[in-house]
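name: query_chain
kind: protein
chains: 1
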Amino acid sequence: MVAFSGGPDSLALAAALAGLASARALELVLGHIDHGADPGSAARAARAAELARELALPFRLERIDVPAGRARRESPEAAARRLRYAALDGLRRRLGATRILTAHQRDDQVETVLLQIARGVPLEALGGIAERRGPILRPLLAVSRVELLAWLGEHGLVPLADPTNLDLRRPRNRLRLLVLPELRRREHGIDDDLLALGERSRALRARLDRHFEHRGRTPIEGSESPRSAPEIDCGWISALPPALRLPALRWMLAEVLGVAPMPSGPSMNAFLARLEHGKPARLRLPGEIRELAVDGGRVAWASPASRIPAFSYTFSIPGEVELPELGLRLRVGRSRVEPWMFRGDPRRAGFVAAPGRATVRNRRPGDRLHPIGAPGTRKLKEILIDRRVAEESRDRIPLLELAGRLAWVPGVTLDRRFAIADEAECWLAELEPLPVSENGSARASERMAH
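structure:
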């Protein structure tokens, strides 16, 4: 699937791939995300569909609401990017596509490295746009904007124009239209210098990752896999030179614990400061129903201190429901069966069921289910104790109930009666953080949840 805006870059990528598709046995789909950022976005989506027809390629349109999905203290640009990639990946899964190709090119890479410098990004994180990340590939990073425009002209292709690219309120547009032209006039070779800096940063990041991998992959004796284990040892981070502690914490959160997105820089620095002095501390994870607690060099999953009342919400599937007590949203829809579903994931699950009504609630006395791998049904309380879920966390787990039976306990188990076997398609349940009001103040429910 090509992330297709209809602009010069994505049009060139789609047209070039269209010529290669039959020879390479590729099935191509163009995915367009309408941000609704201005009154002309719907017209551009229609024009993008026309360009797809000219290329004889299938076209899929997704719409997102950036203001509604924007998180607290998140910039509109960052929110749009996050929601755009989430929409693209959701479309990819529904289509069964194996890759998402974006048309980021050489000039985009130059701009990104310069933006990162301006924002004070650490040296090891100045690598710019990654050539590949998960299912995302960016094959045009070595090609300049001028070369792409020339190629379009040679092939008689006219891209659509997006007026939001001229909006100087956006940092990237200011840099692209005002700062970089002046830098290029004054500093010959500035593009090559910035790209070389990005390459050196990526090499440094890879070297650090190898170093952290060697020191930080050892779980505490007796624990399970890192993501589901209650404890891991992070004493090695305090032993590092001060300049390496924040990169090491980022690595541990991402690679060992699977945390995304990252907590804020100040919160991680405060966490590290307490870790360095051997003091108990907690780190809030964005959108998580748990926190990380540190004590004596060990990091453990913990529950926020506050408790919440009983809740229960019934909704139709496919559909979604908000859980204000937890600051989360649960969405259930159709999906292709994917390998990760057989390994488990704390925030999403694939299962089989009939369409109809579903209930999401916290635990009740007498709850039972038949965990995958168990010989029979068990009390939920016993399962949570066996999995070493802290008592104060147990009322905060949103339980999915189908046909009057517990089906999914996020981060713990799935009832075997709803487990996937050899199906090609299934239902996908996903938990995600609730958005926050535009004025930047957290919802009362999110304050309660955290």
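note: The chain is about 35% helix and 20% strand.
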